[in-house]
Amino acid sequence: MATRVSILGATGSVGRSTADILSANRDRFSVEAVVGGRDAAALAEMAIRLGARFAAIADERSLPALRASLSGSGIGSAGGEGAVMEAALRPADIVVAAIVGAAGVRPTHAAVQAGRTVALANKECLVCAGAPFMRDARAAGATLLPMDSEHNAIFQALGRHRPDEIEQMIVTASGGPFRTWPAERIAGATREQALAHPNWSMGAKITIDSASMMNKGLELIEAHHLFGVPPEALGVVVHPQSIVHGLVSFSDGAVVAGLAVPDMRVPIAHCLGFPERLGTSARRLDLASIARLDFEEPDMDRFPALQFAIDALAVGAGAPTVLNAANEVAVAAFLEGRIRFGDMAALCATMLDRFGAATEAGVLESVEAALALDAEVRAATLSVVGTA
Ligand code: NAD
Ligand code: MG
């Protein structure tokens, strides 16, 4: 029987790469539901191309356009937050969680609570609500498959092991477009400069996070929750070629690394086929033509966002929630031209200070409590940067 897949965030960068893999393996998969934010035409096109049964659009105002584009297709549709939740809960063997930001928490959490296998691209879920999210996943017997490339590489490198045999887990960072820039130039970088990632083609939010290296900080927090390793066993190394994605070192000194060309179709195919391998048309890795792989320490002075994330992870409790919410508002404000590049990390630091009470143990008793804190921090950050 075909594996039934639902895609939350189907019209985005990860969603479209997922659709490519599904289309190339039609005999193995059927598509249950697709979810998009507000681009009705793109969602309808995706639903029809994949033969989905149901399409949900988060922005209710886009529902008439979605219905018009789907008319005659026999594909069901609905709009608003309830529709997104319905899509997340429809029966599926794999739910791909690829909505961007904390907007993905509720639907992804719903799928997890229903005990589904969730292929997790949306790292903000675990940064916003890590501990209760993982606790609920375990309680429901849900399986989380890491789709983020670094975590997928680590997942593949782990093999058979006991937890006490792991010494360190390392995620690599490309260093982004500003890897060699001096601090003052980074602080004043334009939107276009920040959106020009050297190795990966991704959505706007994660591309900005990669330029500030906040993305790597979010990934450390993600790794902590996904793999249950303590913060001190996690590391980052800058690797400009983005060929080695993640490494695990074991108690005997052996290190196992995951390599591939920087193409999200590789980790996406791994999750969709797991535990089997699917074919992909990703370019094959040719080490001799790449010739060299470079590695360097991250520079926390020029990329303070990474240090703030490491600090938030060490503090624990609601600190990562605060960081994530402030960062999402800051990135949106930067993309809208309301603040400078260098203001983003500063805003996160201000909010971490202001919401010091969120660092108290017990503050994240549930995913709903995390979302309540998220909403509070968003409002406070918006009151600093103003709305568009
Ligand atoms: P994107 O901006 O390209 O796509 C986001 C998707 O979410 C779109 O389909 C959009 O319509 C949908 N969406 C936005 N707001 C929504 C809402 N309120 N309700 C429902 N849907 C909504 O983003 P992306 O680059 O595909 O990234 C998606 C997630 O995957 C992010 O969490 C990102 O960190 C993670 N990720 C992305 C990549 C990558 O290569 N793009 C790699 C690793 C991890
Ligand atoms: Mg990544």
TrEMBL record:
GO terms for molecular function: 1-deoxy-D-xylulose-5-phosphate reductoisomerase activity; manganese ion binding; NADPH binding. Pathway: Isoprenoid biosynthesis; isopentenyl diphosphate biosynthesis via DXP pathway; isopentenyl diphosphate from 1-deoxy-D-xylulose 5-phosphate: step 1/6. It catalyses: 2-C-methyl-D-erythritol 4-phosphate + NADP(+) = 1-deoxy-D-xylulose 5-phosphate + NADPH + H(+). Gene3D superfamilies: 1.10.1740.10, NAD(P)-binding Rossmann-like Domain. NADPH binds at residues 11-14, 37-38, 122, 124, 203. Mn(2+) binds at residues 148, 150, 219. Its EC number is 1.1.1.267. PANTHER family: 1-DEOXY-D-XYLULOSE 5-PHOSPHATE REDUCTOISOMERASE, 1-DEOXY-D-XYLULOSE 5-PHOSPHATE REDUCTOISOMERASE, CHLOROPLASTIC. This is 1-deoxy-D-xylulose 5-phosphate reductoisomerase. It comes from Alsobacter metallidurans. The lineage of its organism: Bacteria, Pseudomonadati, Pseudomonadota, Alphaproteobacteria, Hyphomicrobiales. The gene is dxr.
